Amino acid sequence: MAGYKRVDRLSEEIQREVDEIIRHDLRDPRIDGMWSITRAEVTGDLRYAKIYVSCLEDEKRTELLAALKHAAGMIRRELGRRMKIRYIPELLFISDENIAYGVHIAAVLKEVIKDEEREEEHA
Prior knowledge:
Blueprint: H1 2-25, E1 35-42, E2 48-55, H2 58-70, H3 72-82, E3 90-95, H4 98-122
Parallel strand pairs: 2-3
Antiparallel strand pairs: 1-2
Helix pairs in contact: 1-3
């Protein structure tokens, strides 16, 4: 059970550090706009870390992920300098579309509410 707590703590720390590295150390023009690191999941053997990235601008999502995958080695090296752990996990960047989906659902609900209000006015 203690191992899971360590993996969870390590996941949170990696999420914070990777976000910091990307925002302040990367100078790639493809990495701009409305994006965020939503979570990081480190495997039990601490060899891999899935980094979930959310991008609200659909047209920039593929460019952003390509830039992050290209810079994964540099990000991992910088992560190794910042963290005091024996093995730095290999970073796998994955698109997280939960926030974009939530924004879409909110827009649909807003439209439904407007339609219902119009129907009530005309009734």
